Amino acid sequence: GMRFxxxxxxxxxxxxxxxxxxxxxxxxxxxxPDTPHIVDIGANIGTFSAWIKKLYPQAxxxxxxPHPDNVMLLRRNAPFAAIHPEAVAGAEGEVxxxxxxxxxxxxxxxxxxxxxxxxxxxxxxxxxxxxxxKVDIEGSEHEVFSSATLDTMQKVRQxxxxxxxxxxxxxxxxxxxQCGFSYHWDKDLLIAK
Length: 193
Hints:
It contains 7 helices and 11 strands. It is α/β, with parallel strands linked by helices. The longest helix is centred in the first third of the chain and has 10 residues, at 12-21. The two termini are 30 Å apart.
């Protein structure tokens, strides 16, 4: 019963199958309030946001996606979300992302498309409590969390972080442990409460 606008000759359909068909983030098993506050960082074309809205129709969502090509589809697939066409990074300012728009693997780069960046603290500011924070930013997650404070993290009740570098797993375990979270791994996803 869900419909998505996707690009041909891209991995968009695979992403829909992974996020919705296989529920790769485990959303169907999560316990969230009836009206959860959710922040989707690395929203891509809106697959996760649309899936969570279907499961939690009263959800309030904020979606961050820096790539202009993806933002066009994000607006169509998740029109209910407060969409921010910005990157979330370790510092506020301007960053470059890879220019390829037909990929879910957009990364920060030395050259490419210049976009505005905000910090995790700024991304979470609209909500007093964030019931679910989802971060899938293709390898930049360490930069984002290494600049996050305990005050910022105390707003978060649950988090799903895709950690792309195996050598950073121990750092994430220590960081989330120090912030008072219990956590477990599901492949490359850190699931923290």
